[in-house]
Amino acid sequence: xKTSFILVPIICAALGSTAALADDDAGNSxxxxxxxxxxEGSLPTTVTTYGRVMPAEKGRESISxxxxxxxxxxxxRVGQEVDKGTQMITLxxxxxxxxxxxxxxxxxxxxxRLLERSRxxxxxxxxxxxxxxxxxxxxxxxxxxxxxxxxxxxxxxxxLKAPFKAMVMSVSVSSGAVVTPxxxxxxxxxxxxxxxxxxxxxxxxxxxxxxxxxxxxxVSGGGAFxxxxxxxxxxxxxxxxxxxxxVAITGGDPxxxxxxxxxxxxxxxxxxxxxxxxxxxxxxxxxxVVQSVKAVAKKVPVAVIGAExxxxxxSGRLVAGAPVVGAGNYQLDDGDKMRLSNSNTSALxxxxxx
Length: 354
Hints:
Blueprint: H1 2-28, E1 31-33, E2 35-36, E3 40-55, E4 60-64, E5 69-74, E6 81-82, E7 87-93, H2 95-123, H3 129-152, E8 158-161, E9 166-171, E10 178-179, E11 184-189, E12 194-200, H4 202-205, E13 213-218, E14 225-232, E15 243-251, E16 259-275, E17 280-281, E18 287-293, E19 296-308, E20 311-316, E21 324-325, E22 338-340
Parallel strand pairs: 1-22
Antiparallel strand pairs: 2-21, 3-12, 3-16, 4-11, 5-7, 5-10, 6-9, 7-8, 9-11, 12-15, 13-14, 13-16, 14-15, 16-20, 17-18, 18-19, 19-20
Helix pairs in contact: 2-3
């Protein structure tokens, strides 16, 4: 029975020692973290959009029929690049066009005869100057009409040729088609005068200005090409609700009709630059970072105002000089102690921002 009374004090002493050790461990517990120096800086701000490479409007030319005719042959196809002088479409004048040409030709013969007679009479002082002038005008008009019909192809079979090195954008007729004056036959575009056409939402358009640098990457792969914003529209398109943007291509070798992703550089955003992994999101949806203030965690709400790659620009009431916690930040609450993974205790300081 004496033995039992002796054991009771020993057990109580042991339990007291264990509790004291647990309390000491709890007071000295810390989270292993890595720290990132808090630095001010800037990152480029960009707008990303999608669009298509197209010929510039000033480099386009539409060719229409000038007389009534039948299409005998179409020698080109859409997307084909043609050199200056390439034969494209052959036309045969309609009976009406041929008749008009014959009439114009006969009118020239008649007018020339009358003019010759008038000049002869005038030289003999038997014709007035006014009548001679009228006959000269009649003859000149007849020649002009005939020349125009010849140029339009009314005199016989004619072949339309490319007026410059170009790309065929559209062919509106096929062999055997009958066309009237003004019928669109073919549309050409200068293959070297290309623009990138895209559109952005109004809130993004406000950040874009003429001259902003643009990098475009083909959706199908291949090398990037470069340019500058040539035009930023000021009216929302009724078709897609976007503000139109035209980019003048200054470098690279894109193809007309090619789809691409464009990154428009709209300037730089200044603030504190931190890795994306340093930014956390609380249950209320607020972004925040954790700073180390004398080895004690402090959560600071921040706003993300810029991004590039895995880096972000943030703003907020951060503690000046206090580093931001990287690895291990998600384990921390306000007031938690921390220790560095590289044991560099000199990085654990910082002064509160005024």
